[in-house]
Amino acid sequence: MTITPTQASAQAREICELAPIVPVLVVHDVAHARPLAEALVAGGLPALEVTLRTPAALDVIREMAQVEGGVVGAGTLLTPADVKAAKEAGAKFGVSPGATDKLLDACEAEDLPTLPGVATSSEAMKMLERGYTMLKFFPAEANGGAPALKAIGAPLPQISFCPTGGVSPQNANSYLSLPNVVCAGGSWVAPSDLVKKGDWKAIEELAREASQLSR
Question: Is the dihedral of CA 6, 11, 13, 14 positive or negative?
Fold first, then answer.
């Protein structure tokens, strides 16, 4: 089964609309997967991006995919092999730091809605030309932050974004207030020290605070 870019963007947007923040998760121990996902979902953040940056990542996705109410995706998709492995592990969406034709071909062939990463207006136009209208803006802060994304939105109002990279509780509202931003990706809702300690209540509270950010 295949998915078209238009369908991919529509489905990715639906996932992005579930909450103002998508947790960006780097999980090293699969034993943390289920309680972490349960805490984030209970706090009001159902869309979860598990980055493929650790050996445990695919097993983490498998565990989180079983958590009721959660929608688990795979981040840091770099190759067609990543896409296939993520889909087989149970990922419902994908996120990439950038975008190549080979990667997008694989996502479409695997029927995996994906947020392709862009950093410039030219890259955004290339994705729009292919049919993608829901994109990741990365790395957001390093690329000029909310003012840069606002400027890109002026000539490209048909594109919506999920900014990621340097988004924090202090600047999240500056992004979420933009008309071309649907949600933002952030790692602060699952800090490594709390994950290591297994302080799921504290993580649930951080998620609850993030879920109440206005957009």
Answer: positive
pLDDT, tens digit, 9 for 90 and up, residues 68-94 = 999 999 999 999 999 999 999 999 999
Domain boundaries, the chain: 5-211
Active-site amino acid positions: 49, 136
Architecture of the domain delimited by 5-211: Alpha-Beta Barrel (3.20)
Q: Tell me the per-residue pLDDT of 41-63, one tens digit each, with 9 for 90 and over.
A: 999 999 999 999 999 999 999 99
Which single residue is written with the structure tokens 């929608």?
71
H helices within the chain, ranges in order?
5-16, 33-42, 57-64, 80-89, 101-109, 121-130, 145-153, 172-176, 192-197, 200-211
Enter the pTM of the model.
0.97
pLDDT at 138: 98
3-state SS of 165-203?
Answer: CCCCCCCHHHHHCCCCECCEEECCCCCHHHHHHCCHHHH
Structure tokens at 2: 């295949």
